[in-house]
Amino acid sequence: MNIIRIMTPKINVKYLSDTDTLLDGIQEMRNHGYTSVPVISDDCICVGTLSDGDCLRYIFDHADKFSPELLSGVKVSEVMNKSRNPAVKIDVSDETLFSRITNCNFVPVTDDRGCFVGIVTRRAVLKYYEDVISGGEKREDRA
Q: What is the DSSP letter of 81?
């Protein structure tokens, strides 16, 4: 499969900077209806994914001193689980991509330098395989 054909490019993806605050992250996810968002460093490296679960765990763990100021004083990079949903390279194998996408709604994609270039959604992968099964794409094009 040519991942570029099914990838949503960075320009069309909502992502957070690792220096954004937790309040920024929560507001962005709420405004866009997302349950998780890629987090990118200033040099375009994908450093992880912030999920609603990360936010809730942080709030729960700090419930005794919770305030809106608390959310404004912590960076998303301090809250997110960096080992969950790591990025794949643009030349990822079909098997690896399929395995990874079964566990999350999207997978971040990086180029050879490790720079974030976009995401592949579960919906896009399922649509691709639906097209292959229904004959909408020639098998030799799957390289």
A: B
Identify the three-state secondary structure at position 21: strand
Q: Record the pTM.
A: 0.85
Non-local CB neighbours of 78 within 8 Å, separated by 6+ positions: 22
Q: What are phi and psi of 65, to 5 degrees?
A: -125, 25
Q: What b-and-e string marks burial along 51-72, b requiring 16 or more CB atoms within 10 Å of the CB?
A: beebbeebeeeeeeeeeeeebe
Reading the block at residue 37, the tokens are 């968002």
CA distance linking residue 9 with residue 130, whole number of Å: 22
- Give Dmax (Cα) for the chain: 59
Digit-coded pLDDT (tens) for 54-85: 999 999 998 888 787 888 889 999 999 888 89
Task: Give the angle subtended at the CA of 134 by the CAs of 133 and 137, to the nearest 5°.
Answer: 80
